[in-house]
Design goal:
By secondary structure, the protein is α/β, with parallel strands linked by helices. About 40% of the residues lie in helices and about 15% in strands. The strands form two sheets. A four-stranded parallel β-sheet has the order 4-3-5-6, with helices on both faces.
């Protein structure tokens, strides 16, 4: 019997930003995307969920990448980015982010992989003294270029969806080495102790 895993998110299961994520799902898993109830509400309505996700990312970065200064790449507005920054500061992680350039976070769906890479390189030029890059939110999709950027920039890069997949599968006692999508999935480190 195959292992069944589902992700609940604010976007429709047919949203094109899920396509790059589907590419690295291990073939022996049955995987489903589901749109959460109330998904048409503001991103600010999910503040409690943000805390849990950031807890996981903070643990991941601190344990495996020893990052104290991160570049936060996300398509959300500056107010929500400040909430992320302030929360991470409580864990002694200093985060930097470029100013809002998209009219709405959903405009990130219109960006190509080249656009995402260019935005990231511009932001890194503005904030060069970081230990890692973190992509929060799948709409600003780095997955097609994640490994390329990690190699070229010589920095660990974590994207939220691959990180969630790693956590879920690790909690189930599964271990994969998925190449082509960055160090987290190719090296598949053990889960750090903590709230995972």
């Amino acid at each position: 019997m195959p292992i069944k895993i589902g992700f609940i998110g604010s976007s429709a299961p047919s949203s094109p930003h899920h396509d790059s994520f589907r590419q690295f799902i291990p073939k022996d898993l049955e995987f489903t995307f589901v749109q959460e109830a109330g998904a048409k509400t503001s991103l600010y309505d999910s503040r409690g969920k943000v805390d849990a996700l950031i807890d996981q990312v903070q643990e991941l970065i601190a344990e495996h990448f020893v990052a104290k200064r991160i570049l936060l790449m996300t398509p959300v507005d500056d107010e929500l980015k400040r909430l992320y920054r302030d929360y991470l500061a409580g864990f002694d992680i200093e985060s930097f982010y470029p100013p809002q350039t998209l009219r709405a976070h959903t405009d990130a769906l219109k960006l190509s992989a080249d656009d995402v890479e260019e935005m990231t390189r511009r932001a890194l030029a503005e904030y060069p003294d970081v230990d890692a890059i973190y992509f929060q939110g799948a709409l600003l999709d780095p997955i097609p270029i994640l490994e390329k950027m990690e190699v070229e920039l010589n920095l660990p890069i974590i994207a939220s969806n691959p990180a969630m997949l790693w956590v879920i599968l690790s909690k189930l006692g599964l271990n994969y080495q998925i190449t082509g999508y960055g160090k987290l999935l190719s090296q598949w480190p053990s889960l750090p102790p903590g709230p995972f």
